[in-house]
Amino acid sequence: MGALFVISSLRTIFILTGLLFTMTTQASAAVKSEIVCVQCHGSQTGRFAKPVELWRGSIHAENGINCNHCHGGDPGDAENAMSPARGFLGTPVETGIPGFCGRCHVGVLKDYLGSKHGKNLGKGGPTCITCHGSHQVKKTTIELINEKNCSRCHSYEKPSQIKRAMTATEAKIVYIDSRLSDFKGKGIDTSAMEKSLFAVRNRFHTLFHELNVARINLQTAEIDKELEQQLQSIKRLDETEQKRKLVGVMAIASALLAALVLRLYVKSMD
Ligand code: HEC
Ligand code: HEC
Ligand code: HEC
Ligand code: HEC
Ligand code: HEC
């Protein structure tokens, strides 16, 4: 028994040291060498350097999506980095952009292609980068739908209908999210509610690219119903919380009362 224990803990130590070793070497490698695309383009000037600067602040950089993940090529070999033989794709032409982005955003691509925007690709319809940019892509919010962005090619009437339908739902999601983290901070188990909020939020955020006002209205109405249930649960949690506080206050009050009675009693004995 004893020997076995020693052997198994030695093994654990070996594994741990091995892991630590790989982790430190990987970390120092990451500090030492940025991929060659970033190194070389970062030292260019003008339009060949700009992508690096813009990309650094993007949600893609944040999530480890690098130059080569979009443009292809070899990020470890400066000499052959942009060789087609290493998978370099170059810069997409306008009509190629949705497919270029849609390699990863498959669901969005499908909705986009089915929409009036996708059907007008190459004929005055916007591509992904008209709305999101190519290198400076940020986390999206509903504020991307605004008069300046959406009235360049047509009236703002339909965009504003979409925005109206989505705004109230978005606000509810944000509210529930912040209340759940409050409760979590107080040690209340919110994991089940978080899970269903996550699912609802994902469903909600896939509504836009189809541009189907009627469907968006229908779907947000359904999502609102689910959110209403969550709001009810939050109300119940609030009430339990209130009761707990009341019980606490009453306990303190009765302790004070007891102390007072005792003091009066002791005084009356003097
Ligand atoms: C999310 C995908 C994506 C990533 C990541 C990305 N690019 Fe691009 N890039 C594009 C698209 C789309 C275009 C074409 C449209 C345009 O010019 O904005 C483009 C265009 C370019 C161009 C041509 C610019 C011009 O004016 O002709 C260069 C150079 C470039 N990218 C370099 C880079 C470098 C370097 C990185 C890494 C720091 C990078 N890109 C990361 C999507 C991406
Ligand atoms: C040694 C320097 C160097 C390296 C490494 C390098 N580039 Fe470039 N790149 C350039 C220069 C210079 C240009 C502009 C002239 C040209 O097109 O050759 C350019 C142009 C581009 C363009 C726009 C022109 C086109 O062909 O579409 C893209 C996109 C691009 N690079 C992406 C990348 C990516 C992705 C990597 C890494 C896999 C990379 N580059 C690595 C120097 C470099
Ligand atoms: C190699 C895969 C890949 C390619 C190609 C790619 N993306 Fe992304 N994109 C990601 C990942 C990973 C994330 C971060 C995780 C997430 O939010 O889905 C992301 C996030 C985003 C977001 C933010 C989503 C949010 O939650 O708000 C937008 C917008 C976006 N990408 C647009 C684009 C556009 C536009 C292009 C083409 C120019 C593009 N992506 C090309 C992988 C990719
Ligand atoms: C007309 C402008 C417009 C075009 C064109 C467009 N988007 Fe979007 N996109 C938006 C808006 C607005 C949102 C935010 C919707 C929300 O908050 O629910 C969004 C959200 C997203 C998201 C995050 C939500 C999700 O469904 O994951 C991704 C990723 C994304 N877009 C990628 C793309 C890609 C890829 C393309 C091209 C195939 C594209 N977009 C075309 C405006 C646009
Ligand atoms: C580059 C031009 C361009 C931009 C920018 C643009 N659109 Fe469009 N949009 C079009 C075209 C083209 C059509 C199709 C017109 C038609 O069939 O009448 C269209 C149609 C629409 C429709 C009608 C869909 C239908 O089925 O009737 C909606 C909704 C819409 N766009 C929303 C938006 C929103 C929201 C934005 C901003 C985030 C936006 N558009 C930005 C070009 C654009």
From TrEMBL:
Keywords: Membrane, Signal, Transmembrane, Transmembrane helix. It comes from the Bacteria. Residues 1-29 form the signal peptide. Gene3D superfamilies: Cytochrome C3. The chain crosses the membrane at residues 246-266. SUPFAM superfamilies: Multiheme cytochromes. This is Cytochrome c3 family protein. The lineage of its organism: Bacteria, Pseudomonadati, Thermodesulfobacteriota, Desulfuromonadia, Geobacterales.
